[in-house]
Specification:
Number of domains: 2
Largest sheet: 8 strands, mixed
CATH superfamily of the largest domain: NAD(P)-binding Rossmann-like Domain
Radius of gyration: 24 Å
Strand content: 5-15%
Distance between the termini: 52 Å
Structural class: alpha/beta
Order of helices and strands: EHEHHEEHHEHEHEHEHHHHEHEHEHEEE
Helix content: 40-55%
CATH topology of the largest domain: Rossmann fold
Shape: elongated
Bound molecules: uridine-5'-diphosphate-glucuronic acid
Length: 429
């Protein structure tokens, strides 16, 4: 199949490389010339485990990046993977989805040969968009600018469930594939693109597919906030919440994953998607009390971490605090909505000296906090520290041992349950 992917960001690039791996011919449209060039030279502009290797296998063979939409009309299917950032009022900024739909429509109208322009084409939305977006923004724009009749073009919504750091693996081995389509023909074409993947396929309407993505992320976020709230109570009672959640998660109706209590969830998805779902519900006249509480619990966890620190070391002013982990989770250099951000902000407000270390994410955090100390190793950060805060679940932190002896005073607080030393204290255990 000939597939055009619109947007070479995280989802678009991973999807392009994986569709190429499934044997399709992929044209990736990325309007940023530098990114497009980098992709064509086999260098992914983002770090993602396994991505570079797969890209180098397919680039120049059945994968090519371009800055224009010329390939659209010769393709069977185009997939919109552009970003949907938060706007100031917590709703989503859908302008990139709108302009991609417009450009796509125009090139379906005037690109390629006569035969191409008459061939059936399916436009798929993969960007995470609020229910109604495909029908209210994408479909009208594509139909208007392409000049095609509704029966000459199909529409579908096919959300992604990729985790950063494991995106290639998640694409190739999904728990399920959701395909929402207006009609059977469009959905069948999308389904055939995944033919070589062994996974249940759920066919739905377009709005259901859009909502399935939000509901999935909101439920996972709720699981984490639930574990954190139980953890906060456990902490007061001297109970280890991880022992509790191990028992809770063994109930097959609940499941063990995403019950790791700690300093809360970050990243480019959960905080933004739950906030957008809350806004959507409110705009519809609902009061989403559960979803609002998921965010309240999450927003409070970093402050609890700093309060715990203060209860152990007193005044922050002049204290050296080692912050281990800056990425929003392990396996990525992404610091978006990282729980380390509010913690570092509070430490700086309290005039503490922050000595930070992360195996991958220092550069990203330096753009947010240019004037804290960035160390080359955990040992460097710990040397002379009055306290240590563990913010990210990097496996290398679980091996730290002798390094803690370098501290001025041994106050070790973990926001992720990682450490093996005995005298650590957890945020909620
Ligand atoms: C998440 C979802 O897991 C993906 O399915 C989804 O496709 C993606 O968002 C998206 O919408 O694009 P991701 O943001 O990469 O993926 O990260 P997760 O692995 O889900 O972790 C999110 C945050 O939750 C991290 O800060 C992590 O530390 C935290 N977390 C996770 C916990 O605090 N406890 C847990 O038990 C699990």
């Amino acid at each position: 199949m000939r597939i055009c992917v619109v947007g070479g960001g995280y989802v678009g690039l991973v999807s392009s490389v994986c569709f190429a791996e499934l044997g399709h011919f992929v044209n990736l449209i990325e309007i940023d010339e530098n990114k497009s060039k980098a992709i064509n030279s086999g260098m992914p502009p983002i770090y993602e485990n396994g991505l570079k290797d797969l890209l180098s296998v397919h680039v120049g063979r059945n994968l090519h990046a371009s800055t224009d939409y010329d390939g659209i009309s010769g393709s069977d299917m185009s997939i919109i993977c552009v970003g949907t950032p938060s706007s100031a009022d917590k709703r989503l900024d859908l302008s990139m989805v709108a302009s991609a739909s417009e450009s796509l429509g125009k090139s379906l109208n005037d690109g390629g040969s006569e035969k191409d322009r008459n061939a059936y084409h399916v436009v798929v939305v993969k960007s995470t968009v609020p229910p109604g977006t495909t029908e209210e923004i994408v479909i009208p724009a594509v139909l208007r600018y392409s000049g095609r009749k509704p029966d000459e073009i199909g529409f579908a919504m096919n959300p992604e469930f990729l985790r950063e750091g494991l995106a290639v693996q998640d694409f190739m081995n999904p728990d399920r594939i959701i395909i929402g389509s207006q009609d059977k023909r469009a959905g069948d074409l999308v389904e055939s693109a995944y033919q070589r993947i062994n996974s249940p396929i759920i066919r739905t309407g377009i709005k259901s597919a859009e909502m399935t993505k939000y509901a999935s992320n909101a439920f996972l976020a709720a699981k984490i906030s639930f574990a954190n709230e139980i953890g906060n109570v456990c902490k007061r009672l001297g109970i280890d919440v991880h022992e509790v959640m191990q028992g809770v998660g063994m109930d097959s109706r609940i499941g063990p994953r995403f019950l790791n209590a700690g300093v809360g969830f970050g990243g480019s998805c959960f905080p933004k998607d739950v906030a957008a779902l809350i806004k959507l519900a409110q705009d519809l006249g609902e009061d989403p009390v559960l979803l609002s509480s998921v965010m309240v619990v999450n927003d409070r966890q970093p402050a609890r971490m700093v309060e715990l620190l203060q209860s152990r070391i007193g005044e922050l002013e002049g204290k050296r605090v080692a912050v281990l982990g800056l990425a929003f989770k392990d396996g990525t250099d992404d610091v978006r909505e990282s729980r380390a951000i509010p913690v570092i902000r509070a430490l700086r407000e309290g005039r503490a000296h922050v000595a930070a270390y992360d195996p991958m994410a220092s550069e990203g955090m330096e753009r947010i906090f240019p004037d804290i100390e960035y160390c080359q190793s955990a040992a460097d950060a710990l040397r002379g520290a009055d306290a240590c805060l563990v913010m990210t679940e990097w496996p290398e932190f679980s091996k730290l041992d002798k390094e803690f002896e370098l501290m001025h005073s041994r106050i070790i607080i973990e926001g992720r349950r990682m450490l093996s030393c005995q005298d650590k204290e957890g945020i909620c255990w």
